[in-house]
Recover the amino acids of this structure.
């Protein structure tokens, strides 16, 4: 099987999974700028094709938002796929090294906190959900 064909299926599956969870996919720098500079809180899921993205991060992203408090906006960029969009999103994550998968919580375009790969890889989805919901408790309003 051709490598790009195989990876295309994996990438599309990963994109569909996070979109179905309710996240808006940002594929261009313009979409990133428009989304991340909106007023309110924004959770950015930096998606990837690695095992910890599929086995931990995306399931946690889907589950964490079913909570009393949550960000105003849910968006995702795809590391290694939508490179320019991801690169621009990472410019908003001041003080944090590039990390995928990861989550960034912003308010009015400013980074509040990140859940980095080292807090995802080797952890269970429930642990990541608890971490995200702790951030929601601290920074987000009730829905």
């Amino acid at each position: 099987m051709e490598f790009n064909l195989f990876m295309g299926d994996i990438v599309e599956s990963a994109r569909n999974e996070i979109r179905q969870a309710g996240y808006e996919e940002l594929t261009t720098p313009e979409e990133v700028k428009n989304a991340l500079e909106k007023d309110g809180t924004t959770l950015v899921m930096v998606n990837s094709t690695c095992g910890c993205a599929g086995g931990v991060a995306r399931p946690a992203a889907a589950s964490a938002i079913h909570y009393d408090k949550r960000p105003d906006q849910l968006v995702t960029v795809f590391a290694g796929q939508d490179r320019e969009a991801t690169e621009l999103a990472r410019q908003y994550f001041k003080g944090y090294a590039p990390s995928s998968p990861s989550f960034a919580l912003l308010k009015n375009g400013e980074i509040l906190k990140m859940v980095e790969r080292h807090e995802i890889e080797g952890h269970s989805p429930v642990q990541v959900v608890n971490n995200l919901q702790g951030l929601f408790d601290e920074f987000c309003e009730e829905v």
